[in-house]
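Long-time lurker, first post. I've been practising inverse folding by hand and with some scripts of my own, and I keep getting stuck on stretches where the structure tokens seem ambiguous. Below is the full token string for one chain I'm working on. Before anyone asks, I'm not after the true native sequence, just a reasonable design that respects the backbone. If someone could post their per-position residues I'd love to compare against what I wrote down in my notebook.
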């Protein structure tokens, strides 16, 4: 999923010193926090919460709306079910 990088053979490409294990642990934390119905996917409602919390954490004075989230999901949705899967 994240590819192989340099160093210890476990760095994700484009993520500097982050190893695949660290990225997987972070993804797990995101899903645990935002997957409100605990079904292993993020829907447009859950993903909107994620994006808006991320913007706040990065001090980006903007909010994403449901339609923007739906467009983001379309670009990331590997199986076209309208959700973002953890896998």
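-- Answer (accepted) --
I ran through it position by position. Result:
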């Amino acid at each position: 999923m994240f590819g192989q990088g340099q160093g210890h053979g476990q760095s994700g490409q484009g993520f500097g010193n982050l190893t695949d294990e660290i990225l997987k642990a972070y993804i797990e934390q995101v899903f645990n926090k935002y997957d409100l119905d605990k079904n292993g996917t993020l829907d447009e409602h859950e993903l909107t919460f994620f994006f808006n919390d991320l913007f706040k954490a990065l001090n980006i004075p903007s909010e994403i709306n449901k339609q923007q989230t739906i467009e983001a999901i379309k670009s990331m949705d590997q199986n076209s079910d309208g959700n973002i899967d953890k896998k």
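A couple of notes from the structure itself: The helical segments are 20-34, 44-57, 66-76. The beta strands are 41-42, 84-85. Happy to go over any region you disagree with.
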